[in-house]
Each structure stands twice: as C-alpha cells, then as structure tokens.
Amino acid sequence: MSSFEEAETEETVTCLHLTFYHPGQGEKMMFRCLDFCRRQQLRADDTAKFGRDSSLCRYSLVDTRVSRIQFSLQFYRKLHSSEYAFEIKNLSKKTKLTVNQTELGYLNKIDLPWKCIICFGDYQILAEIQEGEAVDYFETHLHLAEAPILQEKCLPSLQPIPENGISPSFPLGQGKSPTEIDENEL
C-alpha cells in the first residue's frame, strides 16, 4: 500500500461566510476589529457572538449604535440527521434583527438559511453556509462588501399578457382592475 492509501481521510469543515456592509464603513471604520484576511476556526460548542463589547463578543463592531451583544450564531447538528446547521438569536433588547424578511425580537431565534441576508440598523450581512462533515469545529470567513448587499428595487408595474401572447392595445389605467378577456373576443 502507498502512503496515499494509508493517509487519514481528510474531513471537510463547515464554513460560514459572512459578508459585511454598512453605508458609513468608509469614514466610521466600524469593521476595523474584524479579521477579513483568514478563516477562523471555532469549537462546535462555541457561540459566535457579534456586538460592540469586545470582552463578550468574538466579532466586535466599533459603533455605539450596536448593542453590547447584538446577536449570536450557534453551530449544531439537527436531530435524527447527519446535517449541520446554524441558529441565529437576537440578543439586543433595543434593535430588531431581520433574517430574509423574518423579524426577530429580543431572544427570538431561528435556523439560519443556507444563504440569507441579516439586517439590523444600517448593517447588512450576507451569510452563506458551506457544508462540511467535521463534528468538533467549524470555521468563519469574513468578507467586506463595497456596495450594498440589499438593494431596493423599483419594479415596473407589469401588465398582464393573455395566453395567446398578444398584448391588448389598451393600457391598464391606474386604479382599474384587470378585465378578463375571452380568447374569441380578440
């Protein structure tokens, strides 16, 4: 047998990629305490806390509008499954946290979707889970976004198109409800 065949099987590690954005990051430097250069390894039983208090939080944000402990992320294994996940909990009494439009009040928690946007105040964090098999630890990899992650999109009002694909020649007016058209009337 070669040494390649005898080598230990390499475990892949679950990694939580977090991309941070704040409109004032250029002048206020609120992310200066975060390490964007390398992956950080955490024990599976560690809780990753984010907030203003660097003595309590592993990930410190330098901003007086951020709570001492804003939120936490807990790595866990789902019951009766080999699947791993993260749970996010809002630990701020003053600021609500939203995860993909789901609003979390103080001490509310939910499972973190595999890809989502976490918002509080003017902060936007894109969270993406890269799955792995390691049981004893996970990693975080922090990134800095230059542009807003969540953008307000103004969608034009859409005009219904009949099944035959031909748009009616009359425009739908403001406040008028759409009228059903029989195929034979065209």
UniProtKB/TrEMBL annotation:
The protein's matches in InterPro entries, at most eight in alphabetical order, are given as: FHA_dom (IPR000253), SMAD_FHA_dom_sf (IPR008984), TIFA (IPR033621)
Q: Which GO terms describe its cellular component?
A: cytoplasm
Quick one: signal sequence residues? none
* Pfam short name (any one): FHA
Could you tell me which residues belong to the region Disordered?
Answer: 165-186
> Major place of localization?
cytoplasm
Name its GO BP terms in alphabetical order: innate immune response; positive regulation of canonical NF-kappaB signal transduction
Show where the FHA domain sits.
Answer: 49-121
Location(s), subcellular: Cytoplasm
Gene3D superfamilies (UniProt xref): 2.60.200.20
Q: Which UniProt keywords apply?
A: Cytoplasm, Immunity, Innate immunity
Record family assignment: Belongs to the TIFA family.
Q: What is this protein called?
A: TRAF-interacting protein with FHA domain-containing protein A
Native species: Cardinalis cardinalis (Northern cardinal)
